[in-house]
Amino acid sequence: MSPPPTASALREQQAYVAAQAADARVNVELDTGDMTLNIGPQHPATHGTLRIACQLDGEQVISAEPLMGYMHRGYEKLCEVRTYPQCTTLINRIDWLGSFANEVPFILAAEQLMGVEAPPRAQWIRTILFELSRIANVSLFLGDMGVQVGALTPVFFAFRDRERVLNQIEEVTGGRFHPNFDRIGGLKDDIPRGWIAETHAVMAKMRGFCDEMEDLLMGNEIFQTRCRSVGVIPGDVALSYGLSGANLRASGVDWDLRRDANPGLAWDQVDWRVWTHPDGDSFARYWVRLQETREATKIVDQLLDGIPSGPIMAKVPRIIKVPAGEAYVSTENPLGEMGYYVVSKGGLGPFRVKIRTPSFSNISVVPWVMRGTYVPDIITILGSLYFILGDIDR
Amino acid sequence: MALVDKVKLPKPLSWLLNFGRARSLWVYQWGLACCAIEMGAAFGSPRYDVMRLGVIPFPASPRQADLVVISGTVTDKMAPVIRRLYEQMPEPKYVISMGSCANCGGPYWDSYSVTKGVDQVIPVDVYVPGCPPRPEALLEGIVLLQERIQREDMQERWRGEPIVVPTSAASSTRVPAAPGASGTAPTSAPATGTASAVPAGSAQA
Ligand code: SF4
Q1: Does residue B61 come out as left (phi exceeding 0), alpha (psi in the -120 to 50 range) or beta?
Q2: Would the CB of B97 count as within 6 Å of ligand 1?
Q3: Is A107 in the B-facing interface, judged by CB distances under 8 Å?
Q4: Would the CB of B106 count as within 6 Å of ligand 1?
Q5: Is A156 touching B (CB cutoff 8 A)?
Q6: What is the tens place of the pLDDT at every residue in A36-88?
Q7: Is residue A270 in some structural domain?
Q8: Does some domain include residue A382?
Q9: How many domains in chain A?
Q10: Is the interface score ipTM higher than 0.90?
Q11: Shortest-distance atom of ligand 1 to CA B99
């Protein structure tokens, strides 16, 4: 499917701006005063405990300020008092929907410091699990976005089909999420027998799920009216706010770390493409994520067919000591660029870990994008930006 | 509830009232962190389907709720908010603490910003151990709570010792816990002195 024509979107956008200007005139005449609307910290649309303080003028948002810290768990400080293998236990839980994907950049940074490289088989299985967690993560968004516009059915489909992917992850790692499966120098275990055929079947089911979402939501007129030309983020603004992941690609910027800066996983071995959308509105963000989920199922299918044989673990000492040095590795996680800056002084644990999480930057655009929108659009814009609280507050 | 407090109800009547209360729990979902996703799976997914137990997961406000599931990490910044929303719930109210974090701090036991257990803020009836507990474990916790409500003497204050879900439930396989299968669970003898349940065999940690 090709991106929808932008001319109509442009027209809609102009009509939207004109309507806002007309409203502004009415507001001046009636002289509606400011009102503060507090959303959160516990609100179904904030996916957790984000709080947003909005200044309203009538139905229009004058300013919106995200207030964070309700889920701050102190990862960076805790990592300083853990050993390297213990760190992954914590790091799993930052972006709790795509947990295996969280471990990978940290492990890669530690491997880079130690000068070990995982054997090819481990790297392929890592990439497969990475993409599986992407599917498990984003499929929930695909259903949840329906709830934000008042459609309850898609989220049940999402929960149903997500279970299949979780089953596959569980069969390999033993955990539905929070697998804690990645090790410095490889993986904990090999994949079980019969897993490859099962995963092929699940991937076919997930493609069906994507088609279903396309039928249910994207063709729906209400969904289009609520999402088209709402919350438009132009490409240059997105770049200047440090957006990453699908939010950036939905603004027309062709940027994907999996392709541009492959840190040693198997993405360059398979045939896939990066999807972008020129509009930058809520609909574009949904559309890009849907295409990416489809693309991820294709990546997994191709990787499954070509897993090389060989060992699953490189030779690493039993007690892991990382030599002094610094490393920064970032990967394209389900939500965007996630990076770990690891400073080691040669001890059993890191001296300092700085975690760059995608949602923190993605949410920083909220004051910009919310200005001038209407109250019901707050929810759809927040939903389409797709953040996870643990990822914001760390 | 005033009449129930003063007058000793005849047994069939109190049994009937308890039966009704136990099978129509309106639960306010307090999703805080990772456990919220497993709670969402237990409540929203057709595979686990909590409504067959008579639990209705849709109140939009704590003022309509009988039960609150605190699932996830409670931080010091969040704790006053939890207290406040708990106080807005009408009596009789019940609390399920889901996950190691809400039970005792979990993996963040030495963090500077995490409250080590939600029971420091509000009284807890059922602890569900695990990090995260499987959806079946949460269902087991709900079944235990229902048994407890069924046995309650309505005249007394019902806040006794909290229930601890046995860890065998937390690590059960993919078969959803059938409502009748928990008859063997050790509920009749509330463990004394175990106010804060330490998740001995966390399901996935
Ligand atoms: S108990 Fe584990 S899964 Fe649950 S909120 Fe805490 S860290 Fe997350």
Answers
A1: beta
A2: no
A3: no
A4: yes
A5: yes
A6: 888 877 766 556 678 888 888 778 888 888 888 888 888 888 888 888 888 88
A7: yes
A8: yes
A9: 1
A10: no
A11: 1
